Amino acid sequence: MRSTGCGMLAVLLVVSGCSSKLMDTTPATVKAATAAASPAPTTAPAGQVLALRSPAQSAIFDTSLASLVVFTPGTDPEIAATLTLLGPSATPRTVTLPGPATAIAGDGHGVAYASTRGGFFTVDLAAGTVTPTVITGEADTDFTAIARRADGRLVLGSATGVAFTLGADLAVNARSEIFARVDAIVTEGDNAVVLDRGQTSVTALNPQGSPEQALRAGLGATTIAADPVGRVLVADTRGGQLLVFGVDPLIERQAYPVGESPYGIVGSKTLVWVSTTADNVVVGYDLATGIPVEKVRYPTVQQPNTLVFDDASGTLYVVSASGAGVQVIRDAAGPA
Questions:
Q1: Of 18, 54, 118, which is closest to residue 322 (Cα–Cα)?
Q2: Domains along the chain?
């Protein structure tokens, strides 16, 4: 093969001609995969179901408050985003943000962050107060994803395919402009992993915010999660797979078939949980042998798009995207 003079990228990136930039044009994409629409449940959900006022997009667990934090994004400009805290008390508590938001992350110690146009909101969950931050030079940027590294620094992504790594002063320290769109970001230590649904890819960012390895993630990756034992988990919804990656370097370690439109995904210290929206089911897999082994299976609420696990209590939360509430499955892993 004759060299073009630009070298070859053993990743998903498409290069048009020779350039000093990593990419000059919008990367080639496929139609982003989505969760299958769930049928009405025919089996009662396992555990307890808590009502929510509106459909949820995602959720996190705050350890210090022992609370699930459920995120509803709102719509620009009419409806503000909300965070609903479901804690030890029976009464949900809602924090209303100053405007719409697109994604959330947390530090596990009482603070949540929500990406929004131009920057992000910092939320003191206990006090219910919200502080907006506009990132210098990015007032018109549509931020679509946010994550917090172990060192406390934030990584944000945009609808135009840029990943921003912020410094301690909240200024942009690094920009990576190699994505079609940044749909989600997770972190392992001070490394970040970006999910791009249009390229159905995952890309590692090192602590300096520079891109490292980039890998194809199935036929239509939709969701991503980092687990407590250092793995990054991806649901390949179109391809019907659970994908398991190691980080630093980014490498695919397992690919396992999962039918019925896998979508929701979360990892605990012992199991990896995957929800399938075509049949309203969540399954816990043991990955200890190198091949996922099904350990438990539960019927869920309708449209179980979001999964959150609290390792301290062994509780699995299944959050409906259709307004069917939050399912609480205690001792979800079953007998040891």
A1: 54
A2: 48-329 (2.130.10.10)
